[in-house]
Amino acid sequence: MMALCLKQVFNKDKTFRPRKKFEPGTQRFELYKKAQASLKSGLDLKAVVQLPPGESINDWIAVHVVDFFNRINLIYGTMSEYCTERSCPIMSGGLKYEYRWQDDSKYKKPTKLSAPQYMCMLMDWIEMLINNEDIFPTRIGVPFPKQFQQVCTKILTRLFRVFVHVYIHHFDSIINMGAEAHVNTCYKHFYYFIREFSLVDHRELEPLVRMH
């Protein structure tokens, strides 16, 4: 139900990046379908995020990281016309929190960027990681790398910052689009997931602490 509503509320053409899809017939695809079925059944979101019996935790995390990337991509893609160099010259969450960009290539030191620039760098960076077979292997029998959960922690921490920025700086636009319920559901799902597996440091969660 939620995925259907999201499609109705959000303009698919505005997705920031092409959606990453799971290959039918793979275990990851089956897990994805299981996760989606639980969501659509209206189960308690805290229960939905729990690792199904007998499943690999890394597979479960991989499926959710990709799915959250797709969903948050869609949310920000729809918001992006309201998030401009002029309206958001700094990537922030209110006056107290500023997020600087750092990667291993272009920005070796934490660098001030506007919110749109930060989002662009972030989506490119995540897309590069989830399409990297050495980090997110899709072939059966290929193990996840040792640092897999650390990489996912970094991805999810940065995706959380998208929620922070959107909620603090663009909530009026979300309400005007009639998307509040869907964004809130996506956020809750994301929040319960990262808490279930302790994937994001609690200090990172402080900007939205009132919502929990």
Automatic annotation (TrEMBL):
Question: Which positions are annotated as binding Zn(2+)?
Answer: C83, C88, H165, H170
Q: Which domain of life is it from?
A: Eukaryota
Give the matching SUPFAM superfamilies.
Mob1/phocein
Task: Report the coiled-coil segments.
Answer: none
**MF terms in GO:** kinase activity
Under the heading SMART domains, the entry gives: Mob1_phocein
Family matches, as InterPro entries: MOB_kinase_act_fam, MOB_kinase_act_sf
Keywords, in A-Z order: Kinase, Metal-binding, Transferase, Zinc
Query: Record keywords: ATP-binding included?
Result: no
PANTHER family the UniProt entry points to: MPS ONE BINDER KINASE ACTIVATOR-LIKE MOB
Q: What is the protein name stated in its UniProt record?
A: MOB3C kinase
> Which source organism does the UniProt entry give?
Corythaeola cristata
Q: What is the lineage of its organism?
A: Eukaryota, Metazoa, Chordata, Craniata, Vertebrata
